[in-house]
Specification:
Layout: H1 9-19, H2 23-28, E1 36-40, E2 61-64, H3 74-77, E3 81-83, E4 102-105, H4 112-120, E5 126-130, H5 137-147, E6 152-155, E7 169-175, H6 189-193, H7 198-213, E8 217-227, H8 236-245, E9 250-253, E10 264-268, E11 271-276, E12 286-293, E13 310-311, H9 314-320, E14 330-335, E15 338-343, H10 347-356, E16 359-362, E17 364-368, E18 377-378, H11 380-384, E19 393-396, H12 399-406, E20 423-428, E21 431-439, E22 442-445, H13 459-468
Parallel strand pairs: 4-5, 4-7, 5-6, 7-8, 19-20
Antiparallel strand pairs: 1-2, 1-3, 6-16, 8-12, 9-12, 10-11, 11-12, 13-14, 14-15, 15-17, 17-18, 20-21, 21-22
Length: about 475
C-alpha cells in the first residue's frame, strides 16, 4: 500500500524521462514514510535526542525513528530544537562560517535556514532574516525569537526594498518559492495543490528574486539558490538563464559533499549543481546551486543613520543590569520605548534597516521602558535568549506544569511562600520558557498570548492538570 496519495500522472511521466533507469527506485521511495529529523540548538543543550542517529552533514541534526506530537514537548517552545527536513540542511556546506559574515536569508520563513546559520555563525557575524510574504513573517519572527540569538535582524520586505543594502552581504540565500515537488512525500497536501503548469508560473517569481538578489551580494560573495522541487524549468534552466544574463558577474561554485551522503552532482556546461532524491539520500527532494558573484559596487553605511538608535544612558544601564548581562561585543541601544541588545559593530547597518525596512526584530529587544516609570519590563525575547542576569530566579516546572504555562494557565507551585523575586523565569529541564511575575501572593503568567498552545492536551496530561487545579 502506498504511503501517500497517488502521484500525478504527468509528474510521473516527466520524472521517468528525467531519471531513466533510476525512475522505478524513485517511485518506490514514495511507498516509504518520509524521514523525520530535528536540529538541536547549541545555545540550549538538552539530552532528549541523545542516542538518535546523526544527520551526517550537520553536527546538530538528528534523525528520529517516529514523529512525535511536537506541540506537546515544552522544549520545542523553548527553542531547544527545530524540526527541519534533513536535505534542507545541506546548503550550509557551501558557506565558510569560520569567517565573520553578513548574511541575508531573503526568503526565510518559517526559519529553518536562518536558525541553522545562527547556530554556525561567529558571534561577530550578522544575519538578516527576511520574509517577502507579510502573512508568513509572523512565524519567522516567532522561531527566531525562540532560537535566542542576538546577532540577527528580522524583516518583512520585497527584494526591491533591500536596494539600500547594495553589495552589502557576504552571502545571500534564496530558497525560492517553487512548485514543491520535493515535499510530496513529507507533505501530501502539496500534491493536491500541484498543477502541470505550476513550475512555469513559479520560475517567473524565481527569476525576479534572483534579478534583485545579485545586486545585494558584495564582490566575491556567494549567492545560494535553492528549491524543494524536481522540475528542470525551476532548477537547471533558471541557473542557465541566470548565468547567460549575468555572464560577466556570476560563476557556479562547487560544493564538497561526501559521496556517501547520496547527493547527486549534475555537471552542466557551466559547472556543477546539486540534487537530492529520496531514493538516494535520507531526506526529501532539494536542488542547490551556488554562485560566486562579482560586484563593482561598494556598500555604504552612513553614520547619519545611527541617530535613531542611541546608546542607553547611565540610569537605563543601571536598571538594565537587573535583567541583562551583556557579553562580548554586545551593546545596548534605545529606540523609542525599547532597549535592544546587539553587536555594536553593526550599529550603522541596523540603523539603516530601521530607516528603510519593515523591521520586526533587531538583536534582542530586552526590555520596554514605561513612560515616567523608574523600572523596566523584561520581554519574551530576553527570556528566550541567554542574556539573563545571574540574579534572576528560575522556577523549574514539571512537564504538566510547563504545558499549563504554555496554555497561559495559572501556575501554583507548592513552595510559593518561599518565592521572593518579582520577576522570574519559568523553565523546563533548565531551559527558559518565559516570564512569571509575583503579585499579591499570585504568580502571573506572561507567556505571549499569540503563541499559546491551542490544541487540546492529551487525555493523560489533562487528567494530571485536573489534579493540580
Amino acid at each position: 500500500m502506498k504511503y501517500i496519495p497517488e502521484l500525478p500522472g504527468s509528474f510521473l511521466n516527466r520524472m521517468k524521462r528525467q531519471l531513466g533507469d533510476e525512475f522505478q527506485a524513485f517511485k518506490d521511495s514514495y511507498g516509504q514514510p518520509p524521514t523525520i529529523s530535528v536540529r538541536l540548538n547549541p545555545l540550549k543543550r538538552v539530552t532528549s535526542f541523545d542516542g538518535f542517529a546523526p544527520v551526517p552533514w550537520n553536527q546538530y541534526g538528528r534523525y528520529l525513528t517516529e514523529r512525535p506530537d511536537f506541540v506537546f514537548d515544552p522544549l520545542i517552545h523553548a527553542g531547544a530544537y527545530y524540526v527541519q527536513e534533513a536535505s534542507s540542511m545541506l546548503f550550509a556546506k557551501a558557506i565558510d562560517f569560520s569567517k565573520d559574515l553578513m548574511i541575508l536569508d531573503l526568503c526565510a520563513s518559517p526559519g529553518g535556514k536562518s536558525t541553522l546559520m545562527l547556530s554556525e555563525m561567529t558571534e561577530n557575524s550578522l544575519l538578516f532574516s527576511n520574509e517577502i510574504v507579510r502573512k508568513r513573517s509572523g512565524v519567522l519572527y516567532e522561531n527566531i525569537v525562540k532560537w535566542g540569538y542576538p546577532n540577527v535582524v528580522v524583516t518583512s520586505n520585497s527584494p526591491e526594498e533591500y536596494k539600500t543594502f547594495t553589495a552589502a552581504f557576504d552571502v545571500v540565500v534564496v530558497d525560492a518559492p517553487c512548485s514543491g515537488e520535493g515535499m510530496f512525500r513529507k507533505e501530501p497536501e502539496t500534491i493536491r495543490e500541484w498543477r502541470e503548469n505550476k513550475p512555469f508560473q513559479c520560475l517567473v517569481t524565481q527569476k525576479d528574486i534572483l534579478d534583485q538578489a545579485i545586486g545585494l551580494v558584495r564582490d566575491n560573495g556567494l549567492l545560494v539558490y535553492m528549491t524543494c522541487t524536481f522540475s528542470l524549468e525551476e532548477n537547471e534552466q533558471v541557473v542557465s538563464w541566470f548565468l547567460k544574463k549575468y555572464k560577466d558577474r556570476a560563476q557556479l561554485q562547487s560544493i564538497d559533499f561526501e559521496k556517501a551522503w547520496g547527493v547527486t552532482e549534475v555537471k552542466t556546461e557551466n559547472g556543477s549543481v546539486y540534487r537530492c532524491y529520496p531514493h538516494k539520500l535520507k531526506g526529501e527532494g532539494m536542488f542547490i546551486a551556488v554562485f560566486t558573484i562579482r560586484n563593482a559596487n561598494k556598500p555604504f553605511f552612513s553614520k547619519k543613520n545611527q541617530e535613531s538608535l542611541k546608546k542607553i544612558n547611565q540610569d537605563e544601564n543601571k536598571l538594565l543590569q537587573d535583567f541583562v548581562k551583556l557579553k562580548g561585543n554586545l551593546e545596548a541601544f534605545r529606540l523609542e520605548d525599547k532597549i535592544m541588545v546587539f553587536p555594536g559593530r553593526y550599529l550603522s547597518q541596523i540603523a539603516l534597516a530601521h530607516k528603510h525596512l519593515n523591521v520586526l526584530k533587531s538583536g534582542i529587544t530586552a526590555a520596554s521602558v514605561p513612560y515616567k516609570k523608574q523600572n523596566l519590563i523584561p520581554t519574551h525575547e530576553l527570556a528566550m535568549s541567554k542574556l539573563h542576569a545571574e540574579n534572576i530566579c528560575k522556577m523549574e516546572l514539571t512537564q504538566v506544569q510547563a504545558l499549563a504555562y504554555l496554555k497561559k494557565m495559572e501556575i501554583k507551585p507548592q513552595n510559593f511562600t518561599e518565592l521572593h523575586s518579582q520577576w522570574m523565569l519559568a523553565s523546563y529541564q533548565g531551559i527558559a520558557l518565559g516570564w512569571l511575575k509575583t503579585f499579591k501572593n499570585n504568580l502571573n503568567n506572561f507567556y505571549p498570548k499569540e503563541w499559546v498552545i491551542r490544541k487540546n492536551l492529551p487525555e493523560n496530561i489533562y487528567h494530571e492538570l485536573k489534579k493540580i487545579f
